[in-house]
Amino acid sequence: xxxxxxxxxxxxxxxxxxxxxxxxxxxxxxxxxxxxxxxxxxxxxxxxxxxxxxxxxxxxxxxxxxxxxxxxxxxxxxxxxxxxxxxxxxxxxxxxxxxxxxxxxxxxxxxxxxxxxxxxxxxxxxxxxxxxxxxxxxxxxxxxxxxxxxxxxxxx
Length: 156
Description:
Number of helices: 8
Order of helices and strands: HHHEEHHHHH
Distance between the termini: 9 Å
Largest sheet: 2 strands, antiparallel
CATH topology: Arc Repressor Mutant, subunit A
Strand order of the largest sheet: 1-2
Strand content: 5-15%
Helix content: 40-55%
Number of strands: 2
Structural class: mainly alpha
């Protein structure tokens, strides 16, 4: 089961970084990409998607940059993943519009329904603010470089 992509993982890192800023402080994509050791072009693409979804806002000019559009405690992980990757598909049989030929015989359907519900609840009710609070650092993620450098990661 793959819930997140590299892009949505990086989006979460970007948002945690922004959540650690004070007040209406902004930061440039370049500065964030250097701080997290992520590709500037890739991070800019992610930031564009987050801007379209109104999760972040940008300010142009001297002293400009990006910041969260609202409180970190109002931005769910589900919202971020969907902004970057599109609809979350935890299980094939849960997200297809086609009829399943095995539904009447499938002993797994109830199990997968419960798994999907649990995962979606966790993604819906966990916020960027929760992630920042639980990191214990009160600041940016120091392990970003190592954790996500060469592989796609799974949130759960």
